[in-house]
Amino acid sequence: MADLSAFPISRRWPAENPDILQLYSINSPNGVKASIMLEETGLPYEPHLVVIGDNESWTPEFLSLNPNGKIPAIIDPNGPDRKPLALFESGAILTYLADKTGMLLPEGARRYETLQWVFWQVGHIGPFFGQVGFFHKFAGRHWEDKRPLQRYADESKRLLNVLDNRLAGREWVMDDYTIADISLLGWVRNLITFYDAAELVDYAPMKNVQAWLERGLDRPAVQRGLKIPSKD
């Protein structure tokens, strides 16, 4: 049996089965990237709920794994060279799991083309959609100055148009379903449903994105991953 005692996070979130991959997360748009990927690949894993609303990601135990205090994070007891690997940042986790399983990340030039879309999501979609959420649904909605909301909404609309143009004539971002799609699905879904920002970002004309999102949400692994780990 694997020994995870060297990882302080395992004291706050003990592993029932330390021989399988440990996921520390919540089913937020960033968190579900890891859970959807794990469901798609079929890798055995044990999810641990990190309640970010209760600041659990800022506890010493969580910070020992991710000093940036953000979910998701993982420990793979069967990492490279058969040594445990602790990893944070959703893009890195997606890439690692794809390499570990040989799934959902093409080889050769297509690998780097796929990764550029993953990095595009991490660097643009996540930050801007998240700010739309803050200023449209959460505390920022009470701000009298609406210029920040408009700025983030305008940029989010532009980014959605980039995605819509990319999906013209394609079912998936890279033709085949890859980690590029997994990185994006939760964020687009969240923007339109949970943030209720469809009208704000002029979502109605973006038929390619709408069809892509529907295809993605129809996947059984996506449906499962969107609920893991959940407070409900």
TrEMBL record:
PROSITE patterns: GST_CTER, GST_NTER. Residues 107-232 form the GST C-terminal domain. Residues 18-105 form the GST N-terminal domain. It comes from the Bacteria. It holds the Pfam family GST_N_2. Coiled coil: none annotated. CDD domains: GST_C_Ure2p_like, GST_N_Ure2p_like. InterPro entries: Glutathione-S-Trfase_C-like, Glutathione-S-Trfase_C_sf, Glutathione_S-Trfase, Glutathione_S-Trfase_N, Thioredoxin-like_sf. PANTHER family: DISULFIDE-BOND OXIDOREDUCTASE YFCG (PTHR44051:SF19), GLUTATHIONE S-TRANSFERASE-RELATED (PTHR44051). This is Glutathione S-transferase N-terminal domain-containing protein. It comes from Sphingomonas sediminicola.
